[in-house]
Amino acid sequence: MKNYDVVVIGAGPGGYICAIRCAQLGFSTACVDGELSSSGKPVLGGTCLNTGCIPSKALLDSSHHYSFISHDAAEHGINVTGIKADIHKMIGRKDRIVQKLTRGIAGLFKKNGIDWLQGQAKLLGGAEVEVTPAGKDTAEIYQVSAKNIVIATGSVPAKLPVAATDRNRIVDSTGALAFTEVPKRLGIIGAGVIGLELGSVWSRMGSRVTILEALDDFLAPADQEIAAAAQKLLVKQGLDIRLGATVTGTGANNREVSVTYEQGNDKQQLTFDKLVVAVGRSPNVEGLGAEDAGVNLNSGGGIEVDKQCATNLPNVYAIGDVVRGPMLAHKAAEEGVMVAERLAGQKSEFNLDLVPWVIYTWPEIAWVGNTEYELKEAGKKYNSGVFPVAASGRALAAGDSDGMIKMLSDADTDRILGVHILAPNASELIPEAVLAMEFEGSAEDIARTIHAHPTLAEAMHEAALASDQRALHI
Ligand code: FAD
Ligand code: AMP
Predict the structure, then answer these.
(1) What's the pLDDT tens digit per position in 292-316?
(2) What are the CA-CA distances from residue 168 to residues 44, 172, 180, 286 (Å)?
(3) Which atom of ligand 2 lies at the shortest distance from residue 163's CA?
(4) Measured in whole angstroms, how far is the alpha carbon of residue 111 from the centre of its chain?
(5) What is the distance between the alpha carbons of residues 96 and 100, in angstroms, rounded to a whole number?
(6) Pocket of ligand 1, candidates 153, 200, 303: which has the most ligand atoms within 8 Å of its Cβ, to mutate?
């Protein structure tokens, strides 16, 4: 039986990053992963690269270009006629990007001397892991042993019993990233991050999109002011967002799918060509044998860990979507780095309070830290500075001036407590806020930092000034 210093289970952004960092630190490292591509080949990269962040962003970018050419180019004096979308090409481009990146990870594993063990891993208790290679007979099951085990098995789409996926009319996010034609009528259950991103993609390509969301509040985890402004813009773009709408039943045939939902005392029915179930994700422990091996699970069915991602068993750690906290790729990756470095005796930490969120609608939505509602609930005294994107020269020049940046800071110390952005490329603006907050910076620190002109980042500078009533351009 081969013995390793570290065996990582799962090669998503949590697992593959952890494996690379372990190898960099001199550990003999193996990474077990059972993921297969749509053509049945073993692939690295997990949800993020294969069916999550990367393919969704590829389609968001393609559909954004299509939408720009169709609706906004004329405003710039660019008249385009005969615009035609080629969905096969668009999906093919997305698939090639995914392939390039997943192969890139195989290259990184090779470069770092990491053994890629293809197959499903099962914990055998103690220091042993059983690997069942895909498509092989049981004779080829083998075991490896490890001084340390890192579980990074990620998550899977949450199931909604009243809307079971059938890989035809009713699909999950993976299915919605591979439509071969634009559905004329597209229903989406769930107005969370995934529902809004996929709704945006297909609405831009011409689908009539209806999103059914059980909660009364739109984007409940976001700052209310930002969520309300985002909702208005998304509705203007054509998304029919129905709040307080709980789906209670579905019925699909070869041609269409009907959905019944309750909104207050009203019972309604709608018919779609395709229905996407996007009601969140569940931690993935299936087949892992975690409980039998003595690993404690949490109330959500994921793996119970402490702040440093240690489980109840010595030398067994867990990171990413399978543990508590936001299900985001960068969160998984940073936990992976922390665990690897702590195994090497370093004192690395991970700040769960400063994980930035991004929703890649247009404009994008991004935030870090507390919302205004949370500060009010906690009885905190705070300052709020809001700067509208419309007052940014760079945004006007780009013809993209919807949105705002809001900075919340402690009324006594001026320390930044939260930053909330609805703006073009908000994903590229939020790191400044995360960095400032990581250094326990104040709004004044951002206000005194020179921001290049003309940039959208100046709106962050102005939001900081606005929190002290001294914004210069409003
Ligand atoms: P995963 O990426 O889920 O990887 C887990 C891996 O472990 C998989 O390959 C799985 O096959 C393997 N595995 C599981 N069990 C076993 C086993 N027993 N043996 C062997 N292998 C096993 N996050 C962002 O930060 N930004 C985004 O823009 C974003 N967009 C998204 C869009 C969509 C449509 C979806 C679905 C998700 C998106 N996410 C995004 C979330 C992101 O993909 C996840 O947070 C991230 O992939 C979690 O990483 P992970 O390493 O914990 O697990
Ligand atoms: P997220 O967890 O961000 O991916 O969001 C998933 C969304 O789906 C949440 O906002 C849930 O409220 C919503 N949701 C869950 N079940 C239902 C349902 N039966 N009908 C409509 N929306 C739902």
Answers:
(1) 999 999 999 999 999 999 999 999 9
(2) 26, 10, 11, 24
(3) 19
(4) 28
(5) 6
(6) 153
Nearest ligand, CA 57: 1
CA 48 to centroid of ligand 1, rounded, Å = 5
For residue 421, give both structure tokens: 């952005």
**Listed residue (434, 427, 421) closest to 354, CA to CA:** 434
Please choose from 213, 240, 241, 248 the residue to mutate so as to test ligand 2's pocket, defined by most ligand atoms within 8 A of CB.
213
Active site residues: 453
DSSP notation for 423-457: ETTHHHHHHHHHHHHHTT-BHHHHHTS---SS-TT
Q: Rounded to two decimals, what is the model's pTM? A: 0.97
Q: Which ligand is nearest to the CA of 334?
A: 1
Distance 374 CA to ligand 1 centre (A): 29
The predicted-structure confidence for 438-455, as pLDDT tens digits, reads as follows 999 999 999 999 999 999
pLDDT recorded at residue 149: 98
Sorted by sequence, the CB contacts under 8 Å of residue 349 that are 6+ apart come out as: 307, 308, 338
Give yes or no for a contact between 29 and 4, defined as CB atoms under 8 angstroms apart: yes
**Residue identifier of the C-alpha nearest atom 28 of ligand 1:** 53
Residue 50, classified by CB atoms within 10 Å of its CB into exposed (0-12), middle (13-18) or buried (19+), is buried
Tell me the helix, strand and coil percentages in the chain, rounded to 5.
35, 25, 40
